[in-house]
Amino acid sequence: MSKKSKFKRSVVFPIIMLAYLATMAWIGRDRLERGEYLYYFGVIGVGIIIIILLYFSLRKKEQLQQLREQELEDNQYGTYASNPPEQDTSKK
Questions:
Q1: How far apart, in whole angstroms, are the C-alpha atoms of residue 72 and residue 14?
Q2: How far apart, in whole angstroms, are the C-alpha atoms of residue 52 and residue 86?
Q3: What is the pLDDT of residues 48-62, one digit of tens each?
Q4: Contact in structure between 14 and 51 (CB atoms under 8 Å)
Q5: How far apart, in whole angstroms, are the C-alpha atoms of residue 29 and residue 36?
Q6: pLDDT tens digits, residue range 22-34?
Q7: Which of 19, 23, 58, 78 could form a disulfide with 10 if both were Cys (CB 3.0 to 4.6 A apart)?
């Protein structure tokens, strides 16, 4: 069985990427001061779009993995009624 993580990957990675984007925006603020608005906000906008796509991609991956684990668990422990009774083929 897999250990349940407290923080999901689909949340942690985008938060790390947002912190990185904020740091890069702070470092690149001199471009904003020079009047390169389109470049500055364009890079930030593309970064945010990529982070949003990353979040939904990781979330979908986690949901599929959880579904696979649930199906594996359900198939591992079947009920007696779901197993056909064995027939005795020997003649008495």
A1: 29
A2: 54
A3: 999 999 999 999 999
A4: yes
A5: 10
A6: 999 999 999 999 9
A7: 58
Asked if 9 and 58 count as a contact pair (C-beta separation under 8 A), the reply is yes
Looking at every residue in the chain, the average pLDDT score rounds to 85
Beta carbons of 59 and 10 less than 8 angstroms apart: yes
Q: Return the structure tokens found at 70.
A: 């649930």
First to last CA, the chain: 46
Which residue in 29, 54, 56, 58 sits closest to 43, CA to CA? 29
Rounded Cα–Cα distance for residues 27 and 88 (Å): 78
Domain borders along the chain are 9-72
Give Cα 37 to chain centroid, integer Å: 33
Looking at residue 87, the DSSP 8-state letter turns out to be P
